[in-house]
Amino acid sequence: MHSHQVATNAWRWRHQKAPVDGLLKRVAAENIIFLSSGGSDWLQGSGTATRVEGGYRINGRKIFSSGAPAGDLLMTSAVYDDPEAGPSVLHFAVPMKAEGVKLLDTWRVMGMRGTGSQDIELTDVFIADAAIGGKRPQGKWHPLFHIISMIAFPLVYSAYLGVAEAARDLVVEKARKRKADYRSVELIGGVDNELTSARLALQDMIAAAATNDPGLATTNRVMIGRTLVARGVLNTVEVAMEAAGGSAFFRSAGLERLFRDAQAARYHPLREGAQRAYAGCMALGLDVDEAL
User: Fold this and answer.
1) Which residue, among 28, 111, 147, 141, has the nearest Cα to 155 in the 3D structure?
2) How far apart are CA 82 and CA 199, in angstroms?
3) Per-residue pLDDT tens for 227-268?
4) H runs (alpha helix) in the chain
């Protein structure tokens, strides 16, 4: 679900002729694994960048850095109080073996435990001027984030759909082994209804990405899909738990883990309230930056 760092760079190389081919070749040749703190940073960024000779000193704590124990490069950002441009977010990559980078044992969570999304602490990490990949105003939508929204979220929510599909298959398999009754049959039908709604929403997210047209409208379409997929996934596992009955409460049944994993679908940006605000601004012709 976090292959989007490579996918985004590949899209930029193909469609924008961005000079990232060297990085992509290294990924392929050296099996480099990218980490991302994008979900926890998002438009505001986090951490601080202090100007020093030749670059910046970075301090901060990056949460939800999925795959952190296995990663090679952390693709992240920090906030720099630019005396001329005002609060700005700098984007850069940090090698996980760089001085001042520390992996923290914090991933003790309800679900998605296998993602290894530990916190990463950055203490006086030096980033040279030449390593700054981009700079943008803090808290504002930027073209890069429209690309990320278009590419990343269909991938991320495909993983959650897979969790819901596994829950559906598991509960159907269990139901076939029991004597059918009207209530259980009706609940299984409800599982398929909710799963189908998630699938249809994801298909539209993918169709939006396939337009290769990042921008306000595409982000709106993708983020509406993100909300609808999350709802469908959460409703699928909820009804699946009910359809399975008391056996779903046992770890040995396997369903409770899928239920727990699915709950993380709530927390990726844009969360539903922010997504509705964005969609409302688009419908009314208002500035999405002002609303969010």
Assistant:
1) 147
2) 44
3) 999 999 999 999 999 999 999 999 999 999 999 999 999 999
4) 4-16, 21-30, 38-41, 143-176, 182-210, 216-244, 255-262, 272-284, 288-291
Residue 292: what pLDDT? Answer: 64
CA 172/CA 185 separation, integer angstroms: 10
pLDDT tens sequence across 72-105: 999 999 999 999 999 999 999 999 999 999 999 9
Counting beta carbons within 10 angstroms of the beta carbon of residue 121, is it exposed (0 to 12), middle (13 to 18) or buried (19 or more)? middle
Question: Which CATH code is given to the segment(s) 33-137?
Answer: 2.40.110.10
- Six token digits for residue 169: 């298959």
Annotated domain spans of the chain? 33-137, 143-291
- The Cα–Cα gap between 95 and 34 comes to 10
Q: Which tokens go with 77?
A: 């950002």
> Which residue is associated with the tokens 């990663």?
71
**Which residue type sits at 103?**
L
d(CA 96, CA 94): 6
DSSP assignment of 83-141: TTTEEEEEEEEEETTSTTEEE------SS-GGG----EEEEEEEEEGGGEEEEEETTS-
Handedness of CA 217, 222, 223, 229 (dihedral sign): positive
Cα–Cα distance measured from residue 131 to residue 234, given in angstroms and rounded to the nearest whole number: 41
Q: With the C-alpha atoms ordered 9, 15, 18, 21, is the resulting torsion angle positive or negative?
A: positive
Angle at the Cα of 150 (from 146 to 151), degrees rounded to 5?
Answer: 120
This prediction's pTM: 0.93
The CATH code of the domain at 143-291 is: 1.20.140.10
